[in-house]
Amino acid sequence: MRRMQQIVAAAGIGLLALTGAGYEAAAQVKIGAVLSVTGPASFLGDPEKKTLEMYVDAINAKGGVNGQKLQLVIYDDGGDANAARTFATRLVEEDKIVAMVGGTTTGATLAMIPVFEEAQIPFISLAGAIQIIQPVRKWVFKTPHTDKMACEKIFGDLKARKMTTVALISGTDAFGKSMRDQCVGVAPAKGITIAHEETYGPRDSDMTPQLTNIRNKAGVQAVINPGFGQGPAIVTRNYRQLGITVPLYQSHGVASKQYIDLAGPAAEGVRLPAAALLVADKLPEKDPQKKVVVDYSRIYREKTGQAVSTFGGHAYDGLMILVGAMQRAKSADKAKVRDEIEKTKGYVGTGGIVTMSPTDHMGLDLSAFRMLEIKKGDWTLLN
């Protein structure tokens, strides 16, 4: 249980140590987060935690929301879906939160959905799989692009390069399995043939056998790796060690500088769909997201000394969408806030321009994804 410690943050890192009656009086509106701050998904969960803390701090410094300070209650699930569900129950029954921003991984999110649906508490997930929002659930929303969108964006880039035959090497985690299924499902309509498939487990440390099978498969023009965590970095290193020369595509599940650091020089030339946040300084001045992503990047680096990732950006968007809904509702009433989240229109965030509806609880289209390529250890924007 050491990795499942409770972290209570009222207004960022600087206020973590505050306790007592004065603190409770100031923090009148509780919002929850269950994040994978430690464990195999920590490079997603850690920037999410830092982002939520920083911006709750900033919001409270300006008087809070509707005149009330926010209290952020964070639990670390360590990447364990069962722990996530336990903490979700605690947030509902003991902490009495009014809304939830969190759920780092698809597995954790899916485990928590029944808890928040039953409690009728708005839940904005930070995970990628499409089944989080399809079918639509009344109380569940999400900020990241879906795995289906990632497949479609990758397939569009392949077709533009006149490549139509691919192999998949997919993680067996919830996100990896979901994206694999989405790619298989949309491939025929996009004119893509999946000629071969391999998988790997979350604890595998060498994918050479699977990649050797792919290398020996005739006709494969590119390889796609649905997955997140350290697995894709291992795939990338093994890929180069085997001398495979066809293009390697990753998912938005690796949209962090940590992936480049883990993969090292082997990451050169890897392509992936990701949010504009990773190329903030490379966007045209007229891009509607430019100011948002540049400002977030600057503040995050100043506060943490670390490079930005899209995962922190997902947390920023989730919090800002929630705060905007509370402001429009002029209330922290759970049902009113839920209704206003669903009415979000034209929100310019780090992930794109969000317009939700009763039939769309994410609000992003394919234009919100940018195709990137790693060159000289950095992200570059493909035309």
Can you characterise this structure?
This protein is 40% helix and 18% strand. With 383 residues, it is an alpha/beta fold. The protein has 2 domains: 2-145 and 294-368, Rossmann fold (3-Layer(aba) Sandwich); 147-274, Response regulator (Rossmann fold), CATH 3.40.50. Mean pLDDT is 92; it is low at 1-27.
End-to-end Cα distance? 47 Å
Number of domains: 2
The largest sheet, given as strand count, sense and whether it forms a barrel, is:
6 strands, mixed
**CATH homologous superfamily designation of the largest domain:** Response regulator
Widest sheet: strand ordering: 1-3-2-4-5-6
Radius of gyration: 20 Å
Overall outline: globular
CATH topology of the largest domain: Rossmann fold
